[in-house]
Amino acid sequence: MPFPYVLLSAAVSLDGCLDDTGPDRLLLSSPADFDRVDEVRASVDAILVGAGTIRADNPRLLVNSPERRAAREAAGRPAYPLKVTVSGSGDLDPTARFWHTGGEKVVYTTDRGAQRLHATPVAADVVPLGTELDWRRLLAHLYEVRGVRRLMVEGGGRIHTQLLQQGLADELQLVLAPLFVGDPKAPRLFGPGGYQGGRLRLLETRRIEDVVLMRYEPTAPGAGLLDSAADHHWLALACELAAQCPPSRTAFSVGAVVVAADGTELARGHSREGGDSVVHAEEAALAKIDADDPRLSAATVYSSLEPCAHRASRPAPCARLILAAGVRRVVTAWREPDTFVVAADGSGMLEAAGADVVVLPEYEERAKAPNRHLPA
Ligand SMILES: NC(=O)c1ccc[n+]([C@@H]2O[C@H](COP(=O)([O-])OP(=O)(O)OC[C@H]3O[C@@H](n4cnc5c(N)ncnc54)[C@H](OP(=O)(O)O)[C@@H]3O)[C@@H](O)[C@H]2O)c1
Ligand SMILES: [Zn+2]
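Above: the input record for the complex with NAP. Below: its predicted structure, written as tokens.
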């Protein structure tokens, strides 16, 4: 079941609070960081907040820059991202700004909440998800019915905690503000409970005036968890890397990750990375691993597109490079079409040499997305 790419965004005090308990919203970020948030909002298809945040902050959640809205429209997207909220109770104030600003809105709720919203309607689509709210169903609905591929989650803490604990977050953008709240009743960013994976991977740190932005990627569920959960995590990452390739009219945009059997990432790569105009994703990733690394024989290569079996630009195609590295398992989203090579069959080459090839077609759309401009 495909889900959108889920990006959690929050600003937090040095003592881990999202807000104080006063009537007004505590401003944690700096003006330049609010502009960065505006830019992230402009890049997504939907923004989600919990009902608690609507009640506490009465936010508008808009793309404020007219230039960014115009750029969205020029690209054929709505000026404002879809606004999404989540409420079990259905206790939502119909006069809140959320409903009366920006573009389309949707509320995910329970059957009980939907009844209440029937009596006190809000200006939004109401989607009941049963007796309990199920995040996987919610994300699948956003993906399939609303076409959301990138979702920004702007809190509050109860929402962030659940998405991280259920292994559904792809990225965390955290802004650390240089102040203390000090109130034991103030809402915290993350609550207690079981978190998946181990240490998060630090992707970036950036100073923005007096706050620090930290971007993290939750690591995949390691050994011990279902293989299929790990496969989904890593293939989604490969598809995300594909979207980072410099565009080309003459080659695919592909992302690849090499992962050891215990869930350790060994390397990642994408097409044309580092200024090499012909390098392929799997080739770039494998080149970063010591050829004698004993973990390669039980590793998996995740590649958004099936590894190539023929290529003019280098002596060995990626299927050969994978076999030569000793890897015997490949997971991919998309079989190679006849765009550049007729009847490409990297999977056949891998399987003939005894490797397992798993295709997860539910990721095909994501793998294709950065290749839409190429002839079919
Ligand atoms: N600093 C920041 O970046 C930032 C960002 C956002 C928010 N905040 C702060 O965070 C605070 C609000 O956070 P919060 O944790 O109280 O609220 P929240 O996470 O915004 O919303 C919680 C509400 O969402 C609904 N909900 C969440 N999970 C659910 C589930 N599994 N099933 C059913 N309903 C579910 C429930 O709504 P119902 O009660 O309607 O059932 C719940 O009360 C505010 O003080 C706000 O200022 C700060
Ligand atoms: Zn290749």
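Notes for the reader.
The first helix runs from residue 31 to 43.
The chain has a mean pLDDT of 93.
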